[in-house]
Amino acid sequence: MTNKIAERVSRVLFSAEQISKRAHEIGEQISVDYANGAARDTQRRPPLLVCVLHGALVFMADLAREIPTEVEYDFISVSSYGNGTSPGAVRLVKDLERPIEGRDVLIVEDIVDTGYTIDYLRRGFAARLPASIRICTLIDKVARREIDVQVDYAGFPLEQDAFIVGYGMDYRELYRNLPFIGVLKPEHIR
Ligand code: IMP
User: Fold this and answer.
1) Ligand 1 centroid to 164 CA: how many Å?
2) Which domains, and CATH codes, for the chain?
3) For residue 81, what pLDDT is reported?
4) What is residue 78's DSSP assignment?
5) How far apart are CA 110 and CA 63, in angstroms?
6) Residue 84 pLDDT > 90, yes or no?
């Protein structure tokens, strides 16, 4: 069996080139939008990009460098209980390091799937009275939504029900370092 993780992928859904092009487009759009009215911070501080660890780390790093105007970063980490008894329950693992009151917050996610995670984050952030909250996700699994959440920036809609890995996204903590997004061969899923 090969050690190379790229060879464990049966199908590439989004290549590194496609992702890079899309990150560039979204970065430009974000910059234009915040210059043209999306910014609500009365103190005119830069938008705060909040990376949802660990899945969004790679996208956040690329996206941020495609935004040609000022931004600041923070990081948050959540996990799903996923025990079947409380579907959609989300637990805070690591909180933001700074207050967001009065700030323009842009949450950067890898995937919005059922919508529970982003809904949890949006509600939790709203209670801290930011000036605005927007959501950016690389992959929007539109067909799997259980909670109605507004996504402001979506890299790629994914209609099919596929479990994907790469470009930050994992299967059992592996494959985050693939430069593209793909589907694993069945023999690599336990
Ligand atoms: P939601 O709460 O159901 O919207 O799930 C969002 C989170 O589930 C994402 O941030 C991912 O961490 C994880 N997730 C959902 N679908 C996939 C997938 O296909 N591959 C890897 N992680 C996924």
Assistant:
1) 9
2) 17-80+87-158 (3.40.50.2020)
3) 74
4) E
5) 11
6) no
pLDDT of residue 88: 83
Closest ligand 1 atom to Cα of 144: 3
109 lines ligand 1 (CB under 6 A): yes
61 φψ region: left (φ > 0), alpha (ψ -120 to 50), beta (else): alpha
Q: Which residues contact 169 (CB under 8 A, 6 or more apart)?
A: 55, 110, 111, 139, 175, 176, 181
Q: What is the pLDDT of residues 160-175, one digit of tens each?
A: 989 999 999 999 999 9
Q: Do the beta carbons of residue 163 and residue 183 sit within 8 Å?
A: yes
Give the number of other Cβ atoms within 10 Å of residue 67's Cβ: 21
- Tens digits of residue pLDDT in 15-45: 999 999 999 999 999 999 999 999 999 999 9
Q: pTM value?
A: 0.96
pLDDT (0 to 100) of residue 76: 98
Dist CA 101 CA 33 (whole Å): 21
113 included as an active-site residue: yes
CB of 114 closer than 6 A to ligand 1?
yes
User: CA distances (Å), 58 to each of 37, 46, 65, 70, 166, in order?
Assistant: 28, 21, 11, 19, 9
CA of 43 to the centre of ligand 1 (A): 35
Burial of 111 (0-12, 13-18, 19+ CB in 10 A): buried
Q: Which of 25, 169, 59, 172 is nearest to 182 (CA)?
A: 169
